[in-house]
Amino acid sequence: MSPRFYWLAALLLVPMAVPAQDLRSRVRADLDARGLGADGLRIISNVIEYDSSVPPRAPPVVTETLRDPLVGSDASAIFARAVPADFQTLGRLPAAAGTDFDTALERYIGELAGAQAELMGAVAPFDEDALLAAVDAGLPVRHVVALHRSVDLERLAAAREIFVGATRQFVAAVRNAPIPPPQRFETAIGTVVIGGPGNDQHASGAALIIDPGGDDVYQRAPTRA
User: Fewer CB within 10 Å, N side or C side of the chain?
Assistant: First the structure.
């Protein structure tokens, strides 16, 4: 990477509370002061345009942000574009009356088992170790295309519909329900973990984590099988 790239990266490390237009003006002024000019903001865009190819089905918000890095300073706009609308509304669902936590969780796990079965049916068997090795090596485009072709998109959409519907129902059911003490147990979908209101650290391997609050740490790992 050239020194110009690192200058650009350093200039972008400014407080994100600055209004977007003011931030853009300040960054351009700093680029001009260093003799880079406004074209300094197009370094990554030029790399994408001339030195690489965009992976198939790459979300537009990703490529647009790479082409104009300052777009990345507007977190709320990125959230609104990147998170599906039916997930954004989960936090605004009204509480459902008359359902206790244990009953709601038992029903939710049963519905997730159905979504999980549909998901597994949507994905053709593939070599997970080879795929993870490819990710470590940069995941060449041909691996992405091969993986995409091995997925039944209709069944994948069906699995998602089951998952979203079940999650909306569960969230509404437990909105005001007392949460049981922290615990972990095995179910038909795998390990279920219930956290507490404090600062928890959740290890990888759980199929479902329910946590009512706190400044938590989630350790994730590639999902297999």
Answer: C
